[in-house]
Amino acid sequence: MYVAVKGGERAIENAHAWLDEERRGDPAFAALSLAQIREQLSLAVDRVMAEGSLYDPDLAALAIKQARGDLIEAIFLIRAYRTTLPRLGTSRPVDTGAMACDRRISATYKDAPGGQVLGPTFDYTHRLLDFKLAAEGTPAPAPAPQATARTAPTPHIAAYLQDEGLMQSEPADDTAPSDITRTPMSYPAGRAVRLQSLARADEGFTLGMAYSTQRGYGYNHAFVGELRIGRVPVEMDVPELGFAVEIGEIELTECETVNQFKGSRTSPPQFTRGYGLVFGKGERKAISMALVDRALRWEELGEDNTGAAAQDEEFVLSHGDNIQATGFLEHIKLPHYVDFQSELELVRKMRRDAGAGNTAEAAE
Amino acid sequence: MMRPGGDRVGDDRTEAAVTDPAYNFAYLDEQTKRMIRRAILKGLAVPGYQVPFASREMPMPYGWGTGGVQVTAATLTPDDTLKVIDQGADDTTNAVSIRKFFQKTAGVAVTERTADATVIQTRHRIPEHPLTEDQILVYQVPIPEPLRFLEPRETETRKMHALQDYGLMHVKLYEDIAQNGAIAKSYAYPVKVSGRYVMDPSPIPKFDNPKLDMPAIQLFGAGREQRIYAVPPYTPVVSLDFEDFPFDPSKADHACDLCGADTSYLDEVIVDDAGGRMFVCSDTDFCGERRDAGHRGAMSPPDAAVQA
């Protein structure tokens, strides 16, 4: 009895063996290959890369396979792995203006240089289960029609508003931002840290926070000024060479919202923006991030703090990380019988004291 | 030998000792360990002060002792002997898992005997066996901030510590007494360290609080909250109380049913469907040593009684 309560080494080993078996599922069916996950569950791969803060589709696919499709568990595997990687250097800031866009839409202009490019979106699909996909061995879909690739950079929509003075300009700042993985969080965190934190924040949390601003908790109406998805080159300065070389390409989703700003005593009415940027195809997350970013800028823009959760930097940043959240939440299933025992003693004692008190009162 | 972390493992270490060559000694790279050691030294210099540190993502979840694991990793040397306990026991699943982690990544000797360990990582208990100047006790801390449940904002609580503004805590303890006739805090009972900082001793039962003033170094690691703090040897640690309501380090009013000890902290175990109870030492090493020495409790199996 006593031993059973304490658990032990063999229990852990057996649990791991069972877990392995469950992960594999019925061996009568072929095992998933990483390539299948990477190619056919690419949005899951993208989410794991974004919230895992590591751009590596193959590792993300491996993490998803190992985690049996539990994306937060997969994100955790990636985070734990990335901590062990050496830091060889820092890339130059990527230029999203030079993005080769697969998708680029603006909700604020019917058309603009670079055009509206719908890209491979779910947006106008009818959400009807496609039972053809259930059949094994269906041939691959016919190739989609190709447009000629645009070679010129695609200018940001916000730049047009900025040229007219209608959009608040974001002052260029070349100071190295604090790195949230190397510096403990302190508040006020500042926008660079907020954006880093939001970029890896849980998609569901960010969505919920953003949604709450739309429903009036820190309300600020947002237009999607622009949403773009595509690949950008990553460049790194190589000291030995004295110039930057391209070390690869990554896929990014970027969202800039256009929000109204009534103006204050010091600044005329103009538009302001929220900004979202995530690895891979993650437009729900990018739009959410932009809304939350904008809500958190109330102080810098001289707006009222309405006490909404989405305006509260400490609240948002300290609760958005799903690895922190899930760890702390789930740790309550670990043994707590020492603490609980002390609570038992206390409650028993207080009940005894209360009982004695009641009897004394009744006697009086 | 180069590790992925870019660090060299000391030449005096044998290859066999490091069972997983993909990682540096004790998992963390040397730069990270240096950063953690700086935080530890600062913590020792300012007893009870919560030092922010750039906590790393560890291969076990936050809440499973990532803070303690990082402190242990930064503290361990190849010559150390490590003991890991959870709820006082060496054989609880998470203690087993953390001990295996360091066996795998650091190849250090491990022990269940409190007296033989040089570094002890613990969750929720201080061992019964008194610790010495040659030992380091590393605590896993879930919420390092003793004022957190009175004031959720870190920006505010840091100010309160800076100003030594602990009125809110005293009011809370007073209200407990006014409403319940007792301070309704049975674990993670707040202490004042060296007359300056109010500190959360981690969720140890208040029974353990008097032991916090001890010859060993005590290090507290909170991974998710990115804080390290420390109590140096022989530092006065006072459990908060009032003159007319003095601190009471209570425990179950029983003796251990296995070893008969009546001074150790006890776990209550439900033993049958009728709700029968037995009380056993939460410190498995302490209980085992007593039984080896021939001590017996009320529910000891009769056959075991002769071998001593």
Pick out its properties.
A: 364 residues, alpha+beta, four-stranded antiparallel beta sheet, 4 strands, globular, disordered N terminus, B: seven-stranded mixed beta sheet, three-stranded antiparallel beta sheet, 6 helices, 16% strand
Seen as an oligomer or otherwise, the chain set is heterodimer
Which chain pair has the greatest contact? A-B, 53 and 66 residues
**Secondary-structure content class of chain B:** alpha/beta
Largest sheet of chain B: 7 strands, mixed
Which range best describes the helical content of chain B: under 10%, 10-25%, 25-40%, 40-55%, 55-70% or over 70%?
10-25%
Main β-sheet of chain A: number of strands, strand sense, barrel status? 4 strands, antiparallel
Q: Compute the average pLDDT of chain A.
A: 91
Number of strands of chain B: 12
Beta content of chain A comes to 5-15%
Radius of gyration of chain B, CA atoms, in whole angstroms: 21 Å
Unreliable stretches of chain B (pLDDT < 50, length at least 5) are 1-18, 304-308
Q: How many DSSP H or I helices of chain A?
A: 13
Shape of chain A: globular
